[in-house]
DNA sequence: TGACTTATTGAATGCCTGTTCAGCGAATTT
DNA sequence: AAATTCGCTGAACAGGCATTCAATAAGTCA
């Protein structure tokens, strides 16, 4: 109602290439400020004034671009969700991958350096932890979560009998796997000294290999191969 | 400074038995209202006015008993943390338990029906998810968390060589276990239909048995024995 | 250039917040 | 019985909040 100009350009590319590009950049600038603000001050401490200050804009601009604070949060969540989707789909897209390798690729993408940044992890748990924000999360991200879940179930199903007794209920097995990754995420956020990204990735892979010994690392696998700390220079 | 009356009674039992008992009951009433309020409205949506309304008291009473909103939150957190400590310590106290059984008891206590209530899980993730609330959490609960961690490490160490290669770094192994339980908690909160309490408890036990096949279920264990849903009537 | 649309500003508005405090009834003490 | 403390109330207060909007700048088009 406020955005669309019915006369000049009815198509979705915006009024003008230059304008719409600048508009997207502005929105991204505000979304980035929102991410940093939530990470630093928490959801309850995130105000339009602080976000605007971090973005270096006036207080009115956020409402101009997103209509309301809640819509700004929706856009922020959607931005991160799409970033994640792009990453796991790119990793799993390679047609030369076997089903097992594709499953591994999706699991590893949850520990990609672009995703496992404290700043971004803070956003997910901010929304998961707040009763009011959870309904926003479901409205915005539920479909994308289901998409990844379905893709993973499909791969697991294609693994067939080689997957062992976890195949009795593939969906349930995958839900359990994802729960483990969620727990690793949480502990990366809470205790970054004890939970480094690469060590968590290895833990996740070890867990996967323990679930499907016949598929990964050829035969009886160790439940937790090398649960040690890594010292790679990660994000701040 | 505001509570202690230096003249009438210097001991810690309070001014009078009747009075102090009523006082404790009032504080508990406010803490319970706080729990329900955070669970329903989130941390950001929890106000003194709403808490007071849920407790059926005036707005001034919360500040009278807890001095500030932040201290009320601290008291709420401390209440839940002590409840948890009481439960796992009671379960693990039985001197007739073997080390392995005691380890199992501590793990199972995380899925006790008194602990795994949506209302209470919501509190933990509310504090974990908010950057501002995390510093409160650390200040209040860190010691109690460490206490359980240390107790678990001690048991694992006493298991000795029977624990397999997870013994290479007991602390790391236990941190990984706890991360999994955290993830199950999160999914119990987010998706209660897919993650029932007893099923999660069984998942946790299965994971434990996979980590220490020589100790639990005598010999090579299944990574995930029966990851199915249960249909016990739990809390609301 | 001039007409027009879009982007941005920041002061103003009204609501909601946590906290304070004077007052009061009841319990307790002297 | 009188004095005093304690528990509790709710109106009052000051500060912070999201949102609005008139004014203005910048960009686009005819």
Give descriptors for this structure.
homodimer; 236 residues; mainly alpha; 9 helices; 0% strand; elongated; DNA-binding
Task: Explain how this protein is built.
- The structure is a homodimer of 236-residue chains.
- With 236 residues, chain A is an all-alpha fold.
- In chain A, 65% of the residues lie in helices and 0% in strands.
- Chain A has helices at residues 17-41, 48-55, 59-66, 69-93, 99-109, 118-129, 131-159, 170-190, 197-211.
- In chain A, helix 7 crosses helix 8 (170-190).
- The longest helix of chain A is centred in the middle third of the chain and has 29 residues, at 131-159.
- The two termini of chain A are 40 Å apart.
- Chains A and B meet through helix 1, helix 6, helix 7, helix 8 and helix 9 of A and helix 1, helix 6, helix 7, helix 8 and helix 9 of B.
- Chain A binds a DNA duplex (30 and 30 nucleotides) through residues 5, 7-8, 15-16, 18-19, 22-23, 26, 47-49, 57-65, 68-69.
């Amino acid at each position: 109602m406020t955005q669309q100009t019915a006369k000049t350009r009815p198509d979705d590319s915006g009024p003008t290439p230059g304008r719409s590009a600048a508009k997207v950049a502005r929105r991204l600038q505000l979304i980035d400020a929102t991410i940093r603000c939530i990470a630093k001050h928490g959801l309850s401490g995130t105000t339009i004034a602080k976000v605007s200050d971090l973005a270096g804009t006036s207080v009115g601009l956020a409402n101009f671009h997103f209509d309301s604070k809640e819509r700004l949060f929706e856009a922020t969540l959607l931005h991160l969700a799409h970033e994640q989707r792009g990453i796991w789909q790119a990793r799993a897209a390679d047609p030369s991958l076997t089903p097992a390798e594709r499953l591994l690729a999706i699991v590893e993408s949850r520990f990609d350096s672009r995703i496992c940044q404290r700043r971004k992890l803070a956003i997910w748990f901010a929304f998961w932890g707040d009763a009011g924000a959870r309904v926003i999360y479901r409205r915005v991200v539920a479909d994308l979560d289901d998409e990844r879940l379905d893709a993973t179930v499909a791969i697991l199903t294609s693994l067939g009998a080689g997957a062992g007794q976890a195949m009795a209920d593939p969906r349930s097995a995958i839900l359990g796997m994802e729960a483990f990754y969620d727990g690793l995420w949480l502990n990366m956020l809470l205790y970054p000294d004890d939970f480094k990204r690469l060590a968590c990735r290895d833990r996740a892979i070890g867990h996967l290999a323990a679930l499907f010994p016949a598929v990964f690392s050829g035969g009886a696998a160790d439940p937790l191969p090398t649960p040690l700390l890594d010292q790679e220079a990660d994000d701040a």
